């Protein structure tokens, strides 16, 4: 388990450099006392491991920029990929407050030659456009508490045609099936790049009205030959229709035909204990197994802020099973939605 005595740790992403695993994580000081305040004080920390269990913290990766900047409030969740020329690109969320005091999110990147020292590029490189993606609007016109456009997950095109980015976003229009329920606008945002530096925003890969106000921290992954899309949504961000089923929030997977969809978002299943959040699949290079990690969210009304040891991932029919890979780790019961 990765935890810090002085700070809460939550969202994270990993990359394997072929020798060691790198863990990049959001953290904020426990001196804030209120764990909800952590979002506005988030920096990106860094740790390394040989086995996904024992972690050594190293120099931090990113901190917020001086104002005015798109990331002058906090630096949030992202992903790391390696350019063919050897450079590492970290795509991340920048948070800033607008004139209405709303949290506006946009996407930038930083570059490194060694995964330890990162140089930010001028940004942002992507923002919500207002045509396909919802922009913040104050009450009574507004539908959401912030401008959700974050959590960039970048991967190479399967056919070699550049790079794709999946984005946590909301549709600019309500779901056609229920225009009154404006919460139900969560979509998989999409952008494309030929070179990782210049990005073209494209229309969403999903439609609104699938049950989720937002699909956080997206990750396409192949688990034992089956393509899925992992995403995260808390119970409070679900549509009224989904809440009516009594389903709790957590980590979800949707079946998919490819990394770019189509995805069965409406038929997604929850795979973890609701006290865990922001799950990630990780390929274990030593065993060939798919591993799963998440951060410990609220337990008994208190925020924990630690990252779990890995679980081994397998299928039992259409049910995804998470089995502890470390003997002292608590058993995690998989749950279907």
Task: Kindly provide the name of the CATH class.
Answer: Mainly Beta
CATH topology: Tachylectin-2, Chain A
As a percent range, the share of helical residues equals: under 10%
The helix tally amounts to 1
Strand content: over 45%
CATH superfamily: Glycosyl hydrolase domain, family 43
- Provide mean pLDDT, rounded: 92
The radius of gyration is 19 Å
Number of strands: 21
Specify the CATH architecture: 5 Propeller
GO biological process, one term: carbohydrate metabolic process
EC number: 3.2.1.26
Organism: Humibacillus xanthopallidus
Pfam families: Glyco_hydro_32N (PF00251)
Question: Which terms would index this structure?
Answer:
single chain; Tachylectin-2, Chain A; 1 helix; 1% helix; globular; disordered C terminus; glycosidase; beta-fructofuranosidase activity; Glyco_hydro_32; Glyco_hydro_beta-prop_sf; GH32_Enzymes
Question: Mind explaining what this structure looks like?
Answer:
With 337 residues, this protein is mainly beta. It has a single domain, classed as Glycosyl hydrolase domain, family 43 (Tachylectin-2, Chain A, 5 Propeller). A hairpin with a 6-residue loop joins β17 and β18 (290-299). The strands form five sheets. Strands 17, 18, 19, 20 and 21 form a five-stranded antiparallel sheet that branches. Strands 1-2-3-4 form a four-stranded antiparallel sheet, with no helix packed on it. It contains one helix and 21 strands. The model is unreliable at 328-337 (pLDDT under 50). Residues 19-233 form the Glycosyl hydrolase family 32 N-terminal domain. Keywords: Glycosidase, Hydrolase. Its EC number is 3.2.1.26. This is beta-fructofuranosidase.
């Amino acid at each position: 388990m990765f935890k810090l005595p002085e700070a809460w740790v939550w969202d994270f992403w990993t990359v394997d450099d072929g020798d060691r695993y790198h863990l990049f994580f959001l953290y904020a000081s426990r001196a804030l006392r209120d764990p909800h305040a952590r979002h506005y004080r988030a920096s990106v920390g860094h740790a390394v491991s040989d086995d996904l269990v024992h972690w050594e913290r190293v120099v931090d990766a990113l901190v917020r920029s001086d104002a005015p900047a798109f990331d002058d409030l906090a630096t949030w969740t992202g992903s790391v990929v390696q350019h063919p020329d050897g450079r590492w690109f970290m795509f991340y969320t920048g948070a800033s407050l607008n004139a209405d005091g709303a949290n506006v999110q946009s996407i930038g990147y930083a570059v490194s030659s060694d995964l330890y020292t990162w140089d930010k590029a001028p940004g942002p490189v992507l923002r919500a456009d207002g045509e396909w993606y919802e922009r913040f609007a104050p009450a009574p016109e507004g539908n959401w508490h912030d401008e959700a456009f974050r959590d960039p997950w970048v991967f190479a095109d399967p056919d070699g045609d550049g790079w794709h980015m999946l984005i946590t976003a909301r549709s600019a229009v309500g779901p056609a099936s229920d225009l009154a329920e404006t919460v139900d606008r969560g979509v998989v945002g999409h952008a494309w790049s030929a070179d990782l530096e210049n990005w073209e925003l494209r229309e969403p890969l999903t439609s609104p009205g699938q049950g989720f106000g937002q699909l956080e921290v997206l990750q396409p992954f192949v688990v034992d030959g089956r393509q899925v899309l992992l995403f995260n949504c808390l119970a409070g961000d679900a549509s009224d229709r989904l809440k009516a089923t009594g389903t709790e929030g957590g980590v979800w997977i949707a079946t998919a035909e490819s990394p770019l969809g189509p995805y069965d978002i409406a038929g997604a299943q929850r795979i973890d204990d609701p006290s865990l959040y922001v799950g990630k699949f990780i390929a274990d290079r030593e065993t060939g197994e798919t591993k799963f990690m998440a951060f410990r969210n609220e337990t008994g009304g208190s925020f924990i802020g630690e990252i779990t040891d890995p679980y081994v991932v397998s299928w039992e029919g259409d049910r995804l099973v998470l089995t502890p890979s470390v003997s002292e780790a608590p058993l995690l019961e998989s749950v279907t939605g």
